Amino acid sequence: MTAEPGLKRDLVRLPSTPQNAPYSAAVALGAMIWTSGSLPIEPDGTVSDDFATQVRTALKNLESSLEAAGANWSTVVKINGYVADIEQLPALNEVYTDVVCRFGAPARTTVEVSRFRGAVKVEFDAVAYRPQ
Distance between CA atoms of 17 and 100, rounded to whole angstroms? Predict the structure, then answer.
């Protein structure tokens, strides 16, 4: 299948994405961007034990993917959140409101998942618009 004439699919890779990873940090097609899941991994490869810190780090990593693709929090239309414990939703919402909702709250789905690898407790992905 090919894209519409005139639309170019841009595959966005970040320096932090492993070279052999079979995915892109984000994909842009025309004015729309879809990101891969962003984890709470610090630049040094560590993951905090603190849930709120994990949320802030995962959102910072998501923001990096958005910016590399030409978007920002003001152009996000949908965010999906995945958590290890849905009872942590109040803590997630506190950080999320501070980081994401400065430009209004995008549509969001948050679900509990059965498990993550290692100490990870949260992950986010997003759909955004990129001004052309």
Answer: 23
Q: Is the pTM of this model over 0.90?
A: yes
User: Residue 45 region, left (φ>0) first, then alpha (ψ -120 to 50), else beta?
Assistant: left
**Per-residue pLDDT tens for 49-107?**
999 999 999 999 999 999 999 999 999 999 999 999 999 999 999 999 999 999 999 99
- Strands, E assignment, 1-132: 9-12, 26-29, 32-35, 76-83, 107-112, 122-129
User: If we measure between CA atoms, which residue out of 106, 116, 9 comes closest to residue 54?
Assistant: 116
Token couple for 90: 């109040």
> What is residue 97's three-state secondary structure?
helix
